[in-house]
């Protein structure tokens, strides 16, 4: 007797639109329609998020505040109110719980939901996504965008297609073509450095990536080759994982040219610290231990750490700890191929862990 083919998951990725900035514009009518940035506008300030009005000037999340001001001289900086964002995020997650318990929060403003089998018994995942968006709008006064598909990779890409306040549905027979048209820089797991490497190899789109065989990908991307091979075909079998405390938050970057000079190394660790702080604030994941990672030109890796009695809650303190850990290693024995910074021993808003997904009907 032949086994029945496995039925596909129904995955929704919900992403609140310009979340922090939208909350501020909702609560302060004088900010509506204006270019605003939530975060710090000082010399070391970083944009946590910005309104769509600011994005038209090229302002983006994780951008240094000084650069954001140059791009948009009329930009209004608003101090973050994380207690309010947490409260609204709680409202949104309560809405999710009306449909499924298989929810994987990525941060305060986005999450994956497995609605293959959902509490109201709605057959259409698209209808579930529309109901969730309607409830969010009615109960919080905010908008959310959603991607609906048969796996996490495509659902997350789809949620960004029709922003703000939109839905994009990608059915199983449409997945390969959807990925084929996607710039590789947008594919989850392809960072800026890898995207540049791919571009140098003539790989600009998902179609270009799919045209390369496994041997080529292994030669150029090592252990990541299998993921890229499958992603280019719209394949992703990762389940939506229910929430569990994460162990750390980190950011790292690989360089085309190995860094040797102190000024260049310090500038990079400060940039990485600013990006890490944005990620920490977004996840509300405060840590007591700051960890430096250095990968040398010969691929040897060292880590150094410093622990504090209380969680690091200041971007300046984080950057200072990163600089001091790095400077203590100078001069380096050889050039640095990679620098990374992270925080461990976390408290606060977390995510993820294990729960398999179920299988069922079409979207």
Automatic annotation (TrEMBL):
PANTHER family: DNA POLYMERASE KAPPA, DNA REPAIR POLYMERASE UMUC / TRANSFERASE FAMILY MEMBER
Similarity comment: Belongs to the DNA polymerase type-Y family.
Top-level taxonomic group: Bacteria
EC numbers, comma separated: 2.7.7.7
Localization annotation: Cytoplasm
Name of the protein in its database record: DNA polymerase IV
Cofactor descriptive note: Binds 2 magnesium ions per subunit.
SUPFAM superfamilies per the UniProt record, alphabetical: DNA/RNA polymerases, Lesion bypass DNA polymerase (Y-family), little finger domain
Species assigned in the record: Sphingomonas bisphenolicum
UniProt: Mg(2+) binding residues: 15, 109
